[in-house]
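hey m, so remember when u said the tokens were messed up on ur end? i reran from scratch. heres the input so u can diff it against urs
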Amino acid sequence: MTSHPFPIPQPPTPNFYRSLWSLDPSVVFLNHGSFGACPIAVLEKQSQLRSQMEAEPLRFFEDQLEPLWDVARQTLANLIGAESAQLAFVPNATTGVNTVLQSLLFRPGDELLTTNHEYNASRNALNVAAQRHGATVVVAEIPFPIKSADVVLDAVLRRVTPQTRLVLIDHVTSQTGLVLPIEPLIAELNARNIDSLIDGAHAPGMVSLNLKKVGVTYYTGNCHKWLCSPKGAAFLYVREDRQALVRPLVISHGANSSRRDRSRFHLEFDWTGTADPTPYLCVPTAIQFMGSLLPQGWTGLMTHNRAMVLAARQRLCQGLGVLPACPEDMVGSMAVIPLPDYWLNQPMELQATLFHRFRIEVPVIPWQSACEQLADQSAHAVQPTSPRQLLRISAQLYNAPAEYEALMTALKTLDSAYSS
């Protein structure tokens, strides 16, 4: 264990990492992906910042806040391979997507390309932007189950036309838990002079990021999920050559500021009105804390979580008699398991039963899409062509293999009731 300034008990016990969070000890929490979970040490930092803010609000907002913004932004930039000048804080990735889409102008006949795996909130924002300007939303159908990341590239690029103006795509899909190949995709889009908007809600802290290297136009990601900051912290990355186009959803004092010591981009986004900035200001603490928990830092943490979720996926798929829905190289810290058809149309009942009867928190997600068969070449099993219910598991450091085994036991217990 590396040394760090946080009050962590020594030596580690079986519940060592779990003790660093305030999660209900009676619940098997396998749903970090939905809203994240903030460690106690980071929440304590937030409490300190709030006390500092309330002790002298005027001095805090007028004198102390900007230097704190800058530290938080630079710390985040260092982790995700960006320049601090390219980053603005927003409350969540949905706000980031909306900010870009409401800033850009399109013309009738323009095409806005997305996929059938796009997050519903972001897809709604894309629909509204298209309706406002008379543009058309084009959907690339990515089959699921999926055989390889190349299928994603082929599906998206086949739908690119001379009218394509923007591509909106998830980095990690929410419903199906796929890590999409954004780097080669963006390279192809850049070669065609097509802008990219990446909804990276789950990506920071789950997969390694180097946004400058990738060459993305716009990227938004949450800090409250896998970075484990307090709720209400996310970022929007805008490439410098597009910053003049992008304005915050709320226009405030920065719009006509005469200051020259800060960029117009930061003057507008850093102050949109009075709000609690402490979730953003805790991002450095969250990055430092989470990166200190394993000797290999963030690389070790992401590797650990991925290995855990892959092992859990294998155990659950074997236990349920289904095949994995995607190759291992498309898995981060979340994975989905196709459920047998006899659980069809009962996702809320199954999810509620798992929680209320077994105290297991895990999402059951409906999925409807045209899917390809995925045959296991080493066995006789063939995945159903349309897995319409998905069990999505997450893996964070506080989880343990025994928790996934408890989920498997619960599913086996329910199996006869649902299949009868």
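this time it looks ok to me. The mean pLDDT is 91. if urs says something different then somethings off w ur setup not the seq
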